[in-house]
Amino acid sequence: MLSDAPTLHVHDLTVPLGGRSVVRHVALDVRPGEFVTVLGGNGSGKSTLVRAATGLLPHTTGEVRLFGTPVADFRDWHRIGYVPQRPSAASGVPATVREIVTAGRLSRRRLLRPLRHADKAAVQAALTSVDLADRAGESVAELSGGQQQRVLIARALATEPDLLVLDEPTAGVDLEHQQLLARVLAAHAARGVAIVLVAHELGPLARLVDRVVVLRDGRVAFDGTPDAEAAAFAHSHDQHHPLDPNSSGARAGVLGPGWQAGERR
Amino acid sequence: MSLLAYDFMQRALMAALLTGLTAPAIGTYLVQKRLALLGDGIGHIALTGVALGLLTGQAPLLTAVIVAVAGATVIEVLRLRGRASGDVALALFFYGGIAAGVLLTGLAGGSAATLTSYLFGALTTVSDADLLLVFVLAALVLTVSLGLAPQLFAVCQDEEHARVSGMPVAAYSVLISVLAAVTVTLAMRTVGLLLVSALMVVPVAAAQQLTRAFRATLALAMALGVLAAVSGVWVSFSVNAAPGPTIVLLALAGFVVASPLGGWLRSRRGVTMPTDDLHDLHDGKN
Predict the structure, then answer these.
(1) How far apart are CA A47 and CA A57, in angstroms?
(2) From B275, which residue of chain A is nearest by alpha-carbon distance?
(3) Would the CA dihedral through B85, B90, B91, B96 be positive or negative?
(4) Structural domain boundaries enclosing B134
(5) Rounded to an integer, what distance in angstroms lies between the CA atom of residue B185 and that of residue B182?
(6) What is the predicted pLDDT for the residue at A241?
(7) Cα-based distances in Å from A55 to A84, A148, A181, B158
(8) What pTM did the predictor assign?
(9) Are A75 and B166 within 8 A, CB to CB?
């Protein structure tokens, strides 16, 4: 049962936030190696969905299973790499890029043990993959917003996870490094890592996406391939398309007005 | 004239050394969590503990530890559950603590001088028993705050990421508050309850002007804390001033020196402004 369980299984999930249900009866399965993107406008519940899926928020109906285990009983946290939505990687005290990325190894470290060779190697590999190896010793607060975002991504990669959950990871990241990130995520997906990406727009990541889930008002408005989503989307007018790599500003609702969700499954 | 010839002076220096080492160690985590003033609030609450000790005839240091730890735990639990609406709920505790402390001290027949010795420290009255308790508490705080440094760093840096890493974030957060409470009470005799927070925060503020790494900040803050505490005792006895305020003013002097020095160091490294990824700034509004 465990072997063919989906990496992430979300069923009939309802998540309350501030007294109202922000996510309502959502179902979502993600399998090993699958790259799923969760799209939706502001307040559509996409961030809330992944926060509940990682156990950060409690749910009122339905269930979340990680690798077949209910989230409340889940202990193998080293199998999950998480990039929270944060304006900055900094805190009240200076910390270097390497120190923050090393925190990604905590789920694999035992208490009161020094870093092992494998920990250091994973941190170095993660730093290299986001092109920050030469800035490892710098204070993260002195980096630009896009660089800090790459630090948070490196921290998740350093965990060497089987499921990567990224909540708007490319905010402020320049195009060149978005392309680098696309290559890194593609390599992870090819190795069987499941990827859940919450985004406003995808840019260079669009070509990696296996499946698009669109949320509107906390419900799944669309779940299918990018092609089907693009076809459905073509019916609406004058909107930047979130899957368009050249799109630079689709801030309004992901789906055009009057567009009806085409259920594919 | 050797100050070390006096027994009380040896005890005073020892207590100052332990406080100077401990307060910035836990203070670094408080500053990292942006809870720099928590130590101040716990100090207020600890005064109620002191008064309870005076009233019941127990050792004030011991009752202060108990009340401060209980108060710090409640504050942290309220914060974690999102019940503490900003600063207001914390303020209720702080003022309740100091009001009850003053009231109970009066009931116990204590004078303003008794209160002052706890509010601003009374290093020369540190007894052997006090020193032993301070030593044990300091060892406890240092062992935990240095031994669990990777975990505490991660929790204070990014609570959400720490939770998804499977860390018991609530337990670690309460632990930090409890360690802060213990530190407050062990610093009570050195700098006093009203100034203890300064020794937790000011050396950290000074250190981070000069550092880029968390570990370096922690180490330098502890070094500056010891320097301020020990030299503060020395200076205060030499010029016949109160040790607590002298220690705090010396720590502040450290900050005043470190701040422009740090600015100069940063400008030499050319990091006042990120130079590459300039287009990040345009996309940064996302």
Answers:
(1) 11
(2) A144
(3) positive
(4) 3-197
(5) 5
(6) 58
(7) 13, 24, 26, 15
(8) 0.89
(9) yes
Scored b (16 or more CB within 10 A) or e, B125-158 reads: ebeeebbebbeebbeebbebbeebbbbbbbbbbb
Place of tokens 């639990």: B77
Name residues 20-79 of chain A within 8 A of B (Cβ): 51, 54-56, 75, 77-78
B148, B160, B277 ranked by CB distance to A174: nearest: B277
Q: How many domains, in total, are found in chain B?
A: 1
User: How is chain A split into domains, by residue range?
Assistant: 8-88+161-233
Q: Are A173 and A146 in contact (CB under 8 A)?
A: yes
CB-based contact A152:A180 (threshold 8 Å): no
Say which CATH number the domain at B188 has: 1.10.3470.10
Residue whose pair of structure tokens reads 């116990």 in the numeric block? B108
Domain annotation covers residue B140 = yes
CA-CA distance, A98 to B148, in Å (whole number)?
A: 18
Q: Cβ contacts (< 8 Å) between A143 and chain B: which residues?
A: 274
Please indicate, yes or no, if residue B267 is contained in any of the structural domains: no
Distances (CA, A) of B185 to B30, B40, B53, B88: 16, 11, 13, 24
Separation of alpha carbons B184 and B194, rounded Å = 10
Instruction: Please spell the DSSP secondary structure of A136-161, one letter per residue.
Output: TTSBGGGS-HHHHHHHHHHHHHHT--
At A242 the pLDDT is 59
* Average pLDDT rounded to a whole number, residues A208-214: 95
Contact at 8 Å (CB) between B248 and B195? yes
Which CATH architecture fits A8-88+161-233?
Answer: 3-Layer(aba) Sandwich (3.40)
Q: In the numeric block, which tokens belong to residue A154?
A: 């490196």
Residue B216 placed within a domain: no
Asked whether the beta carbons of residue B156 and residue A171 sit closer than 8 angstroms, the reply is no
User: What's the one-letter identity of residue A2?
Assistant: L
Residue B123: band (very low, low, confident or very high) from pLDDT cuts 50, 70, 90: confident
Helix ranges restricted to H, B35-148: 38-56, 60-80, 88-107, 112-119, 128-147
- Residue B116: exposed, middle, or buried by beta-carbon count in 10 A (0-12, 13-18, 19+)? middle
Distance from CA of B168 to the nearest CA of A (A): 11
Residues listed for chain B:
286
Q: Does residue A202 register a pLDDT over 50?
A: yes
Quote ipTM for the complex.
0.89
pLDDT at A6 over 70: yes
Rounded-to-integer distance, Cα B177 and Cα B93, Å: 14
Contact B10, B233 (CB under 8 A): no
**Could you tell me the strand order of the sheet in which A219-224 lies?**
A80-83, A163-167, A194-199, A35-39, A211-216, A219-224
In this structure, which amino acid lies at residue B261?
L
Q: How confident is the model at residue B279 (pLDDT cuts 50, 70, 90)?
A: very low
Residues A230-257, mean pLDDT to the nearest whole number: 51
Tell which residue, B253, B127, B138, B144, has the closest CA to residue B187. B138
Q: Which amino acid, residue B185?
A: T
